Amino acid sequence: MFDSTATNLSSRYAWNNLIGDQDAIRFLETAILPPYVNACRWFAGKARQQAGFRIQVVHEIAFLSDNQTDDKAFLFIVEAAYADGETERYLLPLSFVEAGHPDASSIAPKGILTRADFDQESGLVVDAIYDERFRQALYFNLAHQQTLDQTSGKLTFHRGKGLAVDDINGLITSRVLPVDSSNSALVFGVSDQGEKYFLKLYRKLFQETNPEVDLVSFLTEKSNFSHIPAYAGSVIWEQEGVPDITLGMMQRMVENQQDSWSQTGDYLNDFLYAVPHRLFTIREDVFDRVELLGRRTGQMHLALYDPDSGDPAFAAEPFTDDYREFIIRRFESLLERRYNLLIDNYTKLDPLAQSLAWVFMEAKEMIDEFVDDFRTRPLESLRIRIHGDYHLGQVLATGKDFIIIDFEGEPESSISERKIKHSPLKDVAGMIRSYHYAVSAKLFGSTETAGIEPDHLQRVSERWFKLIRDTYMDAYLETIGSPHPLFKNSNEVNFLLLVYLLEKAVYELGYEISYRPAWVKIPLKGIMDVIREIEKIRIADPTRNSELPLLQMGLLQTKKE
Ligand SMILES: Nc1ncnc2c1ncn2[C@@H]1O[C@H](COP(=O)(O)OP(=O)(O)O)[C@@H](O)[C@H]1O
Ligand SMILES: O=P(O)(O)O[C@H]1O[C@H](CO)[C@@H](O[C@H]2O[C@H](CO)[C@@H](O)[C@H](O)[C@H]2O)[C@H](O)[C@H]1O
């Protein structure tokens, strides 16, 4: 049987009978998967103390073939265990490419798990996304809405409105899109029409339907919002008595040169070059773009607010006590973790970040008071399903317009948290934070502004940000229209926006401390802005009997111009 003395995988079984060779499976689990999976961008457990990988379930997908061979790919559901905390499950499709196969030499090295011999046939075990036969089989099954029975349940392939009837039997080309992200992206082209479909194969699996499929299929099939890539289908693993698990989703392919993060960065270059000359310039077309994004965001939320859909998963809901408690619990735990993280990393921060961190620490009681206010204040605005992880990087720029992508929700949240309804102002807050990031990163990270006083840069970037924020917000609110059941009145809009801005900036603080310490001051500055607003509300409210002293914002001024 399996020869465990060889470094490479070798089995007397044929590839198609791999599952029968328990020794080979064990070798994969212990010797091949750990180094391979740890090198994959999509594996989120790299920093955790690992306790091993286990192949939990194996599905089979037969390749399309004229010559009656029974070649196939296996979809491995791999469980990653850790010393602490919950296990995770990942999707790993594998295929065997024989040495003589014409594609064998062109497989991307990062897709090769191991050399292998199966029944004396030599070749490579590869991530099947790099195998054209697997991609063709996926497309065929989706286009023809196949159901494939498996030993654990079945795989069902669903076709969405976005897949054109003419393309069901069309001649299809395919490739892997070279984006390094938390999932894998495959692109399918139709002859004479170029690349037309984008299939995202999810890697980390949820115990339920992926929120992205809920949202994208709802927007495509039940609304006329056209600024997302239309839903073209999905791959679902169905089992008796347990929720369906989404393995992949196909959408229309969007031709785009860049996302809005890099487009905003380009626009900011003009602004940046003028700063050393003490000129404040924003081109009109920048305002036009921001206004358009505000309108598209509003239209997306109007499409998600559909009182007539009859689908309870999308029905609007009030600000219940349960929801408020959920937000508060989550925020308080986040806040505690962030304070600890700041304390642990304080000495590594630059002086500006240190003074911002200091004011943030001082503001603890004021934040607690604000949280209490959120617990008890009457709120008549409504909550709906939203994008959930909305920032400039999630909006593709198509030239004259925008297409919104990646409806998977917040990376750190559990699947049930991602399906919770929020005020759409949570998305709005995400985009506002992103504009703040864009200008701060540009002004504080460019050589053009290296010799300029930080206080001056701060004021200039604040001016840019406020103009852009207001332009975005005005266009957004105008699109929603007033009165609208989503927003009771402008007081509630302002209050809720602060809640979500604070939550987002506190979340970002952790992301930056862990990944980009030089950017820690960006979310800290965002937190300061919210704190200032909270303080204004406090001062303006004569009924408030708060003993809290005013914050020492003056600490932040390093030098007056
Ligand atoms: N429908 C699409 N058409 C063209 N490119 C797309 C499409 N959807 C996503 N992309 C590209 O793939 C990248 C990753 O997609 P995204 O949905 O953000 O996946 P992930 O959740 O894995 O980050 C995007 O940044 C974008 O460049
Ligand atoms: O895009 P992801 O879903 O992986 O989100 C994570 O990474 C984002 C950075 O790419 C991070 O976003 C933050 O930085 C952006 C600029 O790089 C900025 O536009 C966002 O507003 C800001 O939140 C996100 O927080 C993190 O979860």
From TrEMBL:
It comes from the Bacteria. Keywords: ATP-binding, Nucleotide-binding, Transferase. It is an enzyme of class 2 (transferase). One of its GO terms (molecular function) is transferase activity. Residues 36-131 form the Maltokinase N-terminal cap domain. InterPro entries: Kinase-like_dom_sf, Mak_N_cap, TreS_maltokin_C_dom. Belongs to the aminoglycoside phosphotransferase family. This is Maltokinase. It comes from Larkinella punicea. The lineage of its organism: Bacteria, Pseudomonadati, Bacteroidota, Cytophagia, Cytophagales.
